[in-house]
Amino acid sequence: MNEFLDAASLILILIGAILCLTAAIGLLRFRDVPTRLHAATKPQVLGFVLICLAIALSLRSWPVVAFLIPVVLIQLATAPLAAYMVSRQAYRNGTIDENALLVDELSESSETPPAAGG
């Protein structure tokens, strides 16, 4: 059973490392902010979760699992939030090509409200 768990953890680390590598390559290769944010959040978070799962399988210790669960939950909570904040700021700065957007939900929020006096 130990050999099976060690092999499973090795495979999970390999897949997680490949996902993190593709995220890094995507950050370098993609040109605009939305695609870079997609590359920075989606495969990186999944790779991180797989590596943490592999660590838990490899060490086979409940204190390690108890430590890794909040780490993974914090990563799952903060990565999409950080990507959202970066994309919103890029939209406000004008670094996003608005013609490439299929749906522009922020167009109304950038207009000055009538009661604002401007």
Give the tags:
118 residues; mainly alpha; 4 helices; 0% strand; elongated
**What is the molecular shape?**
elongated
For the biggest sheet, the summary is:
none
Low-confidence stretches: none
Note the beta-strand portion: under 5%
The DSSP helix count reads: 4
H/E order of the elements?
A: HHHH
Count of separate structural domains: 1
Spatial extent as radius of gyration? 20 Å
Helix content: over 70%
How many E strands? 0
Structural class, judged by helices and strands? mainly alpha
Summarize model confidence as the mean pLDDT: 87
Distance between the termini: 70 Å
Keywords: Membrane, Transmembrane, Transmembrane helix
Pfam family, one: PhaG_MnhG_YufB
Transmembrane segments: 6-28, 40-59, 65-86
GO molecular function, one term: sodium:proton antiporter activity
